[in-house]
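Backbone shapes recur. Consider a single case.
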Amino acid sequence: MSTKTKHFIFDFDGVLGDTWSAMIKAVMEIDNLTMEEAIRDMSDYAASPKHSRKNNLTKDELAEWMRWTDRFGRAMARIGFKLFDEFIAEIKKIENKKVAIVSSGSKLYVKDKADSSDLDFTHILTFEDSPSKEEKVEMICRDWNVDIKDIHYFTDTKTDVIELKEMLGDRIIGCSWGYNGYFGLLEVLPEEKIMEDFMDIHLI
């Protein structure tokens, strides 16, 4: 049996956290939108790499985004949501692993919920640490002392693939149980890189 350490970085929403319904409610509340409008806004966000470090946001726009993320995080924490416990159970079965979270969400709802999973995350990096997922992935790899090409990054979000594909290439794994689903991920990932079942993690 191989003793080589596996290095896994997880997006949170739609991968570890079953957050879609809560996110829609939070966006409806803080932006005063109808359900249809909130779904449209969340779907547009998932298709556009706004949190890339090449996003060209002004200082004022970034500050406003931070304020919005704070309001969103507080709403998410209050509304509440479940974890994908069956997926977490499969992760726990893997020996010799290091696990971390990189999220564009707020620590206000990500950190406590992630800690409750009892997975020993070395990092839980959220929007407050950096708006750029590229920078957060680089930070974790430096701390782990591994090459970026030695990690696997799990996401259900098309924007993650768009932002990170140059950096990570085929190390990006799609999780089809999130809000993009199998066919949404198929628009940006090859079929063999999309997990359809929680147990598929054991094939990586």
